[in-house]
Amino acid sequence: MGAVAQLVLKPGRDQALRRRHPWLFSGAIARIEGDPSPGDLVEVRAASGEWLARGAWSASEQLVAKLWTFDPDEAVDEDFFRRRLSRAFALRRRLWPHDPAGAERLVAAEGDDLPGVVVDRYGEYAVLQCLSAGADRQRELLARLIGELAGVRGVFERSDAEIRAREKLPETTGVCWGEEPPEAVEIVENGARFAVDLRHGHKTGFYLDQRVNRAVVAALAAGKRVLNAFCYTGGFGVAAALAGAKEVCNVDSSAEALARAGENFARNQLDSGTCEFINADVFSLLRKFRAERRRFDLIVLDPPKLVESRKSLMRGARAYKDMALIAFQLLAPGGTLVNFSCSGLMEPALFQKITADAALDAGVSARTLYRLSQSPDHPVSLRVPEGAYLKGLVSVI
Ligand code: SAH
């Protein structure tokens, strides 16, 4: 192994790293001493030669390195990953007691000072996602340490997220430690049972980031007619139905997700007579419901990421507004809209404004009961505010 490559920054381009932000962009680099390959350790120095950080080189064109440590004495070795993983796992135990049948995010990448590393636990199985070349290089070590420290039977890798393409990493899925998980792993969340497909489900199988928000919706659902738009495998709908919703209308454009949602309702012994499952495009269906003068007391809008880049921000903003506007029109007097955006580029202030404009155009006066964000097992480093991607508003008219 050759010497560790040194990345020397341009004068004045060291502020972000001095604030311990773990991303290094190509524009900040004056010269590279050495020839690092993606995943290799690199060291970053200021223009003066002062040591700043140690991280991993990546093949991405702009975000060229993700930094593991800002401590010159901290080696990036097995002990390093053992410490970071242990700290992340211990943090979850401060949030809630260990539930062997539960599910939680055990490692939230930058939020746990492990850029590119995501680990979710579903009952007795963990799912590992390596989202950067640096994380990818450590996959075997990470899998073994997770297996040892998280008390699971197996670790399954789901490194198939789109973001890997930007880092020129191939898709990798399969068992990487211990036992093969069953086709469906049952988890219990706030008393609701869900089957999770670790191999093919979205993200690592389930939207764990909405855990706390599903409890908020459940608390508002008793006796209500609920529209669960973008229902995926039924998350908000099952929570609402278990909390005593009068009826729950679940909508998704994926027939497969909708079938899973139906199975999850059955899994919780929910009366199918009060639940609907509609395979449709939410945008068209909302218009159809409006034409039919159908009314709901509680509407959840949890669309996929509608803003993928700065260029699509305005288009996405219009879609969020359009949807919220019609949803407000579908609410019965005293009804509640719970709308979310998981687009990191959509700032909370803009989302608030969009929702306010939607209420105005719908001719309703609304007030916010809750401002929601991702569940606390998806912590956000104060140094990396970009990690706060999920926002939601609970507005009552
Ligand atoms: N609320 C869910 C997660 C929603 S993920 C939970 O708590 O688990 C977003 C979902 O929207 C996906 O299931 C996707 O299939 C669906 N979807 C995407 N575009 C859609 C559209 N235009 N109309 C209906 N569903 C859509």
Tell me what you see in this structure.
There is one protein chain. The protein is α/β, with parallel strands linked by helices. The chain is built from 11 helices and 20 strands. A 7-stranded mixed beta sheet has the order 16-15-14-17-18-20-19, sandwiched between helices. A 6-stranded mixed beta sheet has the order 2-6-5-4-1-3. A 5-stranded mixed beta sheet has the order 7-8-9-10-11. Helix 6 (211-220) packs parallel to helix 7 (235-242). The longest helix is centred in the first third of the chain and has 18 residues, at 78-95. The structure holds S-adenosyl-L-homocysteine (SAH).
- What share of the residues does DSSP label as strand, in percent? 25-35%
Integer average pLDDT: 96
Strand order of the largest sheet: 16-15-14-17-18-20-19
Roughly what percent helix?
A: 25-40%
Poorly predicted ranges = none
Please describe the biggest sheet, giving its number of strands, its sense, and whether it closes into a barrel: 7 strands, mixed
The small-molecule ligands in this entry are: S-adenosyl-L-homocysteine
Structural class: alpha/beta
Number of contiguous helices: 11
- The outline comes out as globular
Give the tally of β-strands: 20
Distance between the termini: 65 Å
Rg value = 23 Å
